[in-house]
Amino acid sequence: MAIGRPPAATGPPLRIVPLGGVGEIGKNMMVFEYGEDIVVIDCGLMFPDEEMFGIDLVVPDVTYLRERRDKVKAFLITHAHEDHVGGLPYVLPDFPGVPVYASTLARGLLGNKIKEHKLTENPILPFEAGQSIQIGPFEATAFRIGHSIPDAMGIVLRTPLGAIVHTGDFKFDHTPVDGKLSDFAILAKLGEEGVLCLLSDSTRAESPGYTPSERTVGDAFREIMEPLQGRVIVATFASNIARVQQVFDAAETFGRKVAVVGRSMEQNARVAAELGYLRFPSTGMVPKEKIRETPEGELVIATTGAQGEPMAGLARMANRDHRFVEIGPGDTVIVSASAIPGNEEYVARTIDNLFKNGANVFYDAVKRAHVSGHASQEELKLMLGMTKPRHFIPIHGEFRMLVQHGRLAALTGVPAQNIFIIENGQPIEFQADGTARRAAPVPAGYVFVDGLSVGEVGDIVLRDRRALANDGMFIVVVTVDKQTGNIVGQPEIVTRGFVAGLEDPVIGGAVERITAAIANPGDHTSEIALLKEQIKEGLSRYLYEQTKRRPMVFPVVVEI
Amino acid sequence: MAIGRPPAATGPPLRIVPLGGVGEIGKNMMVFEYGEDIVVIDCGLMFPDEEMFGIDLVVPDVTYLRERRDKVKAFLITHAHEDHVGGLPYVLPDFPGVPVYASTLARGLLGNKIKEHKLTENPILPFEAGQSIQIGPFEATAFRIGHSIPDAMGIVLRTPLGAIVHTGDFKFDHTPVDGKLSDFAILAKLGEEGVLCLLSDSTRAESPGYTPSERTVGDAFREIMEPLQGRVIVATFASNIARVQQVFDAAETFGRKVAVVGRSMEQNARVAAELGYLRFPSTGMVPKEKIRETPEGELVIATTGAQGEPMAGLARMANRDHRFVEIGPGDTVIVSASAIPGNEEYVARTIDNLFKNGANVFYDAVKRAHVSGHASQEELKLMLGMTKPRHFIPIHGEFRMLVQHGRLAALTGVPAQNIFIIENGQPIEFQADGTARRAAPVPAGYVFVDGLSVGEVGDIVLRDRRALANDGMFIVVVTVDKQTGNIVGQPEIVTRGFVAGLEDPVIGGAVERITAAIANPGDHTSEIALLKEQIKEGLSRYLYEQTKRRPMVFPVVVEI
After folding, report:
1. Active-site residue A201, yes or no?
2. B222 CB contacts (<8 Å, ≥6 apart)?
3. Segment A303-322 mean pLDDT
């Protein structure tokens, strides 16, 4: 090493590689690589969009990590929402022994997942706000930040090239329900010391102003509940423990007991209460089996399904398909959430069904009983202003949100060439001299979870499902005499998703068409493959002419 | 007739039968029936939701009208939006000779539809704002009302039992772009004379306050365009002639020419200009073939696809898949629309793609360049206050919107028992004494248009498409010796949308399972139908155990 040069100036580059969460909402996952060491922040999942037919979940493609398996030293978790931890069960099996660091509540909530998926090969270690851990060349420090789950954290990674700040999901809530404020001190101190790069949550980069405090939701609950005589049902996110706490508190204010209904909310509430993150109301809890016996004016039900998910509590109660609760006249429902993009129609349908059942419903458009857990523009500028980063990578958001967040960064003084609006798989590489540039893209896509399979269902399967979904399928079985090439008996037809039944006139025409195709074979049709091809083409064309629809056609030729 | 009794008190009831547009957005259609006469207001379509796989359009089920074919005397059209006229091509063939009454612009825009679908059996007759026509016992008077298309009208039906006011789609715009104000005089006069029933647009019954004037959009266009040097692309609805006019006017202000791109917008603009509803800019029009030759700073492009529709102008320009326009750095795009429920993801994806191409985009969240064509709560109350209806039926809206509109009506003094929140197929019957009640429901559902078929694709076909979309299909063909019952050769398997290929290990297991099923037949399996059933059950169970997925299984047994 040349004397007089600072050591870092000759070291390896530092790479930040996004495998999830940039250019999309969900499956957040960010890789930090320096020399022979990699730490990963978060490992989330996302829910399929409407074009991913039959897919259960989407998790990140971690080819990049698998190819560097020995480098991977730790997974750090910012908080236990599914879009930050839901990918772990599908990713950890490839990284046995690599520890997962998470806060107390996150470890508690992860516990069920670990048990369910039998993930015993990875130690789950404590990592609390204020704590620092050394992982190879990285010193990781967790700091408290506000979000719609307790114990949410941001993470500072001190590296040989400088400090990197990853905000996690955040907002600045000055009156949080649990009284625990965001750690402004560390952010301001980092700003003084110098931040090489800030990675900050862009979910609400399009929203001007400040996001209101979670506490305002409790006020709304009380305003709604005060005049009511009947039962109250509040639907919200199972993981939003602060929101559940406020349901409990509002119920207590009006002398009501609380029942918690919905598997994920029951589990989360139990864990959170055990760990001291949730306080039951002094008025008491009602087991769901006793809901029918409890006088309506003395009860608040907290439940899941605020996104209208067809199988969750609220939708089933609205459809009168729930074992313990049927919602009807006299009931008041509070939908304490706003629809996540893609869920709008589900939410709308559920609200409509509740009204049809005679319930009164308070929802977004008529009474605000929800606030976001994400920072709006003024908070994002505050984060930028406190940390004063040299470089900026907006994360957690669709592409246009990253663009808007980048504009905010420019407004606060980050030089335009140091702002990187990137998509998954686009690494940013920091040189020893502190400059940064885009490096060659790496694999980073969707891995589909469908039933038991992880990654086996790919684009071809989805393309076929799309074709089947659009126009259905058409199987034709013909038996051909090997000697004469003549058709034996009638072609057999099976069709689904195309016409209502085999008596449809188009079917009769199809049989004629097939018979004619075989009766008049062209050259080479002695080959079964060619005969099949001929039937398929002729039949597809005929069906399209007749119906302007294109079912998938499957010819089966049996030679006897 | 008994002397001294008013004649109406012994007459037949008046029925209002909604066949579309209540409890949903779209396919608006309302039937008015008195004795032997029926008039129908509007006949719209709606676009399929995400669960209607492969469906092109949804039109009203008019069984009720078909069963009373001889009573149907006229279709009255409030305005030429697809959700009010798009069902005509599919409904009119059942009612040859029945006239369609519409305003000048509506007739102009209907012209193309008439030609395309060869609808020559129905006269299309003039019905202009201010005009009255007598149809049997009904006197129909059209009145001008503001909406996002010129020549929009409400309709008063004077009946033997009293006046019925149908607002059509409306807002009160005091500074409309075409200068033509809503007809307050007739509404106020009706309020004085007495209105038996008001049917009023509920689309924005959830929105407090007033909807801003269409003119404010022109101001936004000018603010955005003023500093720009590059090309400007404005995407909006093809039918919103006032909006297109404002694009023309803003372009003119800054000395830019205009090109119109997109089949429906080109057609509509031509018709509207011919009929005097659209004024071309003095700066000139550019044919789309000449767009590439026009200096970027001198051009505004008006186009379709503001809903992100994958095949429309904007999405194709964003995907660099358009013949005449590719959007890239230096271009500014204005999305002058808000996403219709269900289209949010399309719109978001299109905006993201535009940003990825390097364009700047002004959209809802960052700059308002759109206003609704529908009345907000204060306007709805104004409508109620002016017409002072005895009964009220909120129309044009999802169920929760109808509920909110009903609450507004109650606030303005309509007695609660005279407010009817109903769904399609729920008739309201007015007796000769002026009282109203719900009558027995009538058929009113969805008719699916899919390719050439109208109404042939039903729930069973959709259910099968859904199953195919979720987990694909699995065909197994076995050849069995008729004499011995033994399988001949290997079972043949064809699968799509299930596993990636036939080399998947689950396929090998399936073949073994089938062979075993046939080798060990239970009782009765000499019957082919039972053998098939056995293969299907065994195989479905095996595939589910192996994959936790349920492809549709089709066994084909060929006996030789």
Report:
1. yes
2. B250, B253, B254
3. 91
Q: In angstroms, how far is the first alpha carbon of chain B from the final one?
A: 81
Mean pLDDT (chain A, rounded): 93
Cβ(A459)–Cβ(A467) under 8 Å? no
In angstroms, the CA B165 to CA B154 distance is: 7
Distance CA B448, CA B533 (A): 32
B138 or B488, greater pLDDT: B138
Going by their DSSP bridges, the two strands B360-362 and B332-335 should be labelled as parallel
Could B556 and A554 be called an inter-chain contact, meaning their C-beta atoms sit closer than 8 Å?
A: no
Q: In terms of C-beta density within 10 A (0-12 exposed, 13-18 middle, 19 or more buried), how is residue A523 classed?
A: exposed
Q: What is the pLDDT of residue B305?
A: 92
Kindly determine whether residue A560 and residue B479, on different chains, have CB atoms separated by under 8 Å. Answer: yes
Cα radius of gyration (chain B):
29
Q: Which among A249, A80, A221 has a CA at the least distance from the CA of A150?
A: A80
Q: Which residues of B touch A451 (CB under 8 A)?
A: 471, 547-549
Length of chain B: 560
Contacts of A253 (CB under 8 A, 6+ apart): A222, A225
CB A306 within 8 A of CB A236: yes
Distances (CA, A) of B459 to B19, B22, B456: 19, 21, 10
pLDDT single digits (tens) A453-462: 898 888 999 9
Interacting residues of B187 by C-beta distance below 8 A, sequence separation 6+: B143, B165, B383, B386, B387
Question: Whose CA is closest to A17, among A300, A424, A482?
Answer: A424
Domains annotated for chain A, with CATH where assigned, are: 14-209+373-433+441-454 (3.60.15.10), 215-362 (3.40.50.10710), 472-559 (3.10.20.580)
Contact A95, A63 (CB under 8 A): no
B186: which strand partners? none
**Identity (one letter) of the amino acid at B427?**
P
Q: Which residues of A touch B467 (CB under 8 A)?
A: 496
pLDDT value at residue B520 = 61
- Alpha-carbon distance of A124 to A329, in angstroms, equals 48
Residue linked to tokens 């809903």: B307
Question: A472 in contact with B at a CB cutoff of 8 Å?
Answer: yes
- DSSP characters over A366-383: TS-----SS--HHHHHHH
- Out of B23, B345, B469, the one facing A468 most closely (by C-beta) is B469
Is B526 buried (19+), middle (13-18) or exposed (0-12) by CB count in 10 A?
exposed
The DSSP element (H or E) to which B557 belongs, if any, is strand B552-559
Is the pTM here over 0.90, yes or no? yes
Are the CB atoms for A158 and A126 separated by under 8 Å?
no
Pair of tokens at residue A551: 């079912």
3-state secondary structure of B287: coil
Give the mutation candidate from B46, B462, B465 for the A interface (greatest A CB count, under 10 A): B465
Question: Is B479 within 8 Å of chain A by CB?
Answer: yes
Q: Which residues from A are below 8 Å from B365, CB to CB?
A: 206-207, 404
**Token pair belonging to A39:** 């730490």
Kindly give, in sequence order, each residue whose CB lies less than 8 Å from that of residue B163, ignoring residues fewer than 6 positions away. B156, B157, B190, B193, B194, B195, B196
Residue type, B277: Y
What is the dihedral angle through the alpha carbons of B248, B251, B256, B261, rounded to the nearest 10 degrees? -50
Asked if the Cβ–Cβ distance from A500 to B53 is below 8 Å, we say no
Rounded CA-CA distance B426/B441 in Å is: 5
Neighbours of A298 (CB within 10 A): 15
Q: Concatenated DSSP letters for A319-358?
A: TT--SS----TT-EEEE-S-PPTT-HHHHHHHHHHHHHTT
pLDDT tens-place string over residues A344-390: 889 999 999 999 999 999 999 988 899 999 999 999 999 999 999 99
Dig out the tokens for B83 from the structure.
Answer: 């959700």
- Residues found in chain A: 560
